[in-house]
Amino acid sequence: MAHSYNFVPLNFKALEEAEMLKRSEEFYQHLNNRRSVREFSSKPVPMEIIENVIKTGGTAPSGANHQPWTFCVVSDPEIKKEIRIAAEKEEKESYENRMSERWKKDLEPLGTDWNKPFIEIVPHIIVVFKRVYEHREGAKHNNYYVNESVGLASGMLISAIHNAGLATLTHTPSPMNFLHKILNRPDNERAFLLLPVGYPADDCEVPEIYRKDLGDIMVKY
User: Fold this and answer.
1) Looking at the domain assignment, is residue 1 inside a domain?
2) Which of 175, 180, 181, 200 is nearest to 190 (CA)?
3) pTM > 0.90: yes or no
4) Is residue 106 part of a domain?
5) Does the bond joining 68 to the residue before it have cis omega, within 30 degrees of 0?
6) Looking at the DSSP assignment, which residues form a beta bridge with residue 40?
7) 12 occurs within a structural domain
8) DSSP-assigned letters across all residues of 38-78
9) What is the pLDDT of residues 150-198, one digit of tens each?
10) Residue 147 in domain
11) Which residues have a Cβ under 8 Å from the Cβ of 136 and sit 6 or more positions away?
12) For a designed S-S bond to 84, which of 8, 24, 119, 181 qualifies (C-beta 3.0 to 4.6 A apart)?
């Protein structure tokens, strides 16, 4: 059923420029410390924290405000094991037969391979599904800018996970049809992203990467 919106005053508080500069610098520094983690602890994470970060992801802008996403939280050890087995099967096939030599060479410095033990180790994984269309009143209704909308929501979710003091990794086994089957999702959903969420392992190490300088990512006109 289509929604009809009332218009209300914007809840916006103007800040002094000095405060704006301070906040923007602090937020940049905070997110600049975010790293993709592949070595996790099994230490429990309260579900309330997971719910809060997902609510944050759900505040993202979306085409026509259709909010075309579903966040599936998997904590059951048996389901996580099933997902790991299926993910590793696809990843092994990718590393051995699908990926180009250039792609594999580019991944070498990051130390990645087809083994994904973190799927079972972390207390929770969040599988993000995109909703291609909706069923309403016995008919299909398209969603708009689905990939862009779900990408924005995923980025905000990742930022919220880091802000909560947790770690994650963007995992995109390809193809991801097995996630749709294992989690028994409806036919209007497609798997978009798998995020393990938890504490990094005590002995966790990450590659010493660099981020592009501002001059390499911004152009002024």
Assistant:
1) no
2) 180
3) yes
4) yes
5) no
6) 200
7) no
8) --B------HHHHHHHHHHHTTS--BTT---EEEEEE--HH
9) 999 999 999 999 999 999 999 998 889 999 999 999 999 999 999 999 9
10) yes
11) 1
12) 119
